[in-house]
Amino acid sequence: MEYRVACLSIIVENANSAIALNEVLHEYGRYIIGRMGIPYKEKKVNIISIAMDAPQDVINSMSGKIGRLDGVTSKVAYSNVITKSEE
């Protein structure tokens, strides 16, 4: 299986979706390298950046689940770093 390094950018405009968002992040936690969250109180949004190393279909699945949450937007930027996994 091929793993790709990617960065998932998330904008949270609806704070009520935070619990569901954290559940999705927990579900895919084994693929997350790190995350950074920035609360932008003046604009009432939260900006989250997630670094991942996972199969492309897993990254797409996670981004899709997050993007379907109410008031949450997600986009993925993929690197060209692709590695084979023994899974």
Structure description:
The chain is of the alpha+beta class and about 90 residues long. It has a single domain (about 1-85), classed as Alpha-Beta Plaits, CATH 3.30.70.1150. The chain has two helices and four strands. It has a four-stranded antiparallel sheet, covered by helices on one side. The longest helix has 12 residues, at about 55-65. The chain is elongated and about 45 Å long. The mean pLDDT is about 95.
Distance between the termini: 7 Å
The global form is elongated
Kindly provide the radius of gyration, computed on alpha-carbon positions and rounded to a whole number of angstroms. 13 Å
Count every beta strand, where a strand is a DSSP E run of 2 or more residues: 4
Multimeric organization: single chain
User: What's the level 1 CATH class?
Assistant: Alpha Beta
Helix content: 25-40%
List low-pLDDT spans: none
Largest β-sheet summary = 4 strands, antiparallel
Which structural class is indicated by helix and strand composition? alpha+beta
The residue-averaged pLDDT reads 96
CATH architecture: 2-Layer Sandwich
Strand order in the sheet with the most strands? 2-3-1-4
Number of helices: 2
CATH H level, superfamily name: ACT-like. Chain A, domain 2
Order of helices and strands, N to C?
A: EHEEHE
Question: What is the name of the CATH topology?
Answer: Alpha-Beta Plaits
Strand content: over 45%
What is the count of structural domains? Answer: 1
